[in-house]
Amino acid sequence: MPQSLSQALLINHLIGGEAAQTASGRTGPVWNPATGQQIAEVNFASVEDVDHTVAVAKAAFPAWRATSLSRRAEIMFKFRGLIDENRDRLAEVISTENGKTLADARGELARGLENVEFACGIPALLKGSYSEQSSTGVDVYQLRQPLGVVAGITPFNFPAMVPLWMLTNALACGNTFVLKPSEKVPSASLLLADLAHQAGLPNGVLNVVQGDRVAVDRLLAHPDVKAVSFVGSTPIARYIYETATRNGKRVQALGGAKNHMLVLPDADVEAAADAAISAGYGAAGQRCMAISVIVAVGAVADPLVAAIRKRIPKIKIGPGLEAGSEMGPLVTREQRDRVAGILASAESEGATLAVDGRDEAAASREGFFLGASLVDNAAPGMRCYDEEIFGPVLTVVRAKTYAEGLKLINENPYGNGTAIFTQNGGAARQFQFDVEAGMVGINVPIPVPVSYYSFGGWKSSLFGDLHMYGPEGIQFYTRSKVVTSRWPDPGTSKVDLGFPQVR
Ligand code: NAD
């Protein structure tokens, strides 16, 4: 990857298996967050570019849909092998554009690969059901068929994993796909699409259009786009859901999060502190499943805050590509400055800035770095509690009882992930029963479901009915058809104008 604009790249779309430039003449900058340098320009699709891409995907649909399940599974197997062989290359591209460490980029690839593995089982996943003799001589059966052209719109924070959440199942089900990756991290999607083509995917079945709101709005309005999968922030998720459903599309739009970790007085303090550090500062807090708020119940608060404080100086902050770095920069300068602003407001609103990451940031680095911060004594009504921060900040709220902590979580507008730390099985079970969130960890701080379950939050963390990937992903990318069939003995045929009966 070039490090300076003098060597800048122009990143293209991939339409019908070929690199394509935009007709719009509009481009956007791509940054290396670790150096603070612009490293490329990315083409921004025009309405015409999107129309052309959707037309290509539509033309590819009949043949792809007719492709046997065994062949689709075979392509997925090959795709899995190629991603596996290219892990280093993919991880480097992810780290360069997103800023996360190489180890973290490899981690997201591993979780993305799980989704390819799931899609390899597509022949079994698409099995329908069959009822013989529903009426005399009549059989009833259900099929699942693909929708047509479907679109995926993805965020910056998982440049490979989130596209893989969507496109693996969509393609395996027989749909053709238009992917609009985040303009901040455009390259990983192109690499994945290239590998899919090497695996044998026919041209036009998977297309990548780069761009911004212009491309998104056209996808939301285009009559030939049958469904939209979105992952990103809550205001945009809501907009995508409202706009695309108004246009008659099936939509799953996953939004932002404010994940709470409830730590009961009986929890193992050292283990809880390790988990909080890993889940709060991994990827510099830029994971939708990152722990953002620690709800410390009763007497656990002081020792827990002390244990977290003790660990923070040991976190190795540095460029993602540098060996040994544990936490990279934030994705953009604006985001770094926004998080710094939230830290300033925390102090002025009465919280305690137990560790201030702005000191580290100011130190020496050129990129968009911010050190890990710990805000204690936070409360609803403060910006650091109310907003999704999406940076390396852990916020501690002190609660007197389990009930008080639970109320806080359930009253939060987000409901993506949550976790409880305790040694009491009964308390954990009660939490699982009570809590209003889509993904729950019991002594597991980042409970991202494995690929054969489905991923999704509640409340403002998901708009739509079906969660992403896994069994619900298969449901989302197919529609069901029920056939009632009679192959009578010709000798029994007669006219009967009564309503069909089954008994
Ligand atoms: P974002 O909402 O800014 O962007 C997501 C996508 O929407 C991008 O492709 C972007 O180009 C497009 N977009 C942005 N503004 C738009 C507009 N006005 N109109 C139409 N399209 C627009 O999100 P981001 O900053 O890339 O990602 C971070 C956010 O994503 C966080 O809020 C995080 O919690 C969330 N996220 C959620 C999950 C989840 O599973 N719930 C997973 C990852 C990230």
Structure, described:
With 503 residues, this protein is of the alpha/beta class. 39% of the residues lie in helices and 23% in strands. It has 17 helices and 23 strands. The strands form six sheets. It has a seven-stranded mixed beta sheet, with helices on both faces. Residues 1-7 have low confidence and may be disordered. Bound molecules: nicotinamide-adenine-dinucleotide. Nicotinamide-adenine-dinucleotide is lined by residues 153-158, 180, 182-183, 212-213, 216, 231-233, 236, 254-257, 288, 388, 390, 416, 457, 461. The site of nicotinamide-adenine-dinucleotide has 26 residues, from helix 8.
Can you give keywords for this protein?
503 residues; alpha/beta; seven-stranded mixed beta sheet; six-stranded mixed beta sheet; 17 helices; globular; binds nicotinamide-adenine-dinucleotide
Short description:
By secondary structure, the chain is α/β, with parallel strands linked by helices. It contains 17 helices and 23 strands. The longest helix has 20 residues.
Small-molecule binders here are: nicotinamide-adenine-dinucleotide
Portion in helices = 25-40%
Number of helices: 17
**Biggest beta sheet attributes:** 7 strands, mixed
Strand content: 15-25%
The count of DSSP E runs of length 2 or more, i.e. the number of strands, is: 23
Q: Helices and strands: which structural class?
A: alpha/beta
Spans where pLDDT lies below 50 across 5 or more residues: 1-7
Mean pLDDT: 96
For the biggest β-sheet, the strand order reads: 15-16-17-14-13-19-20
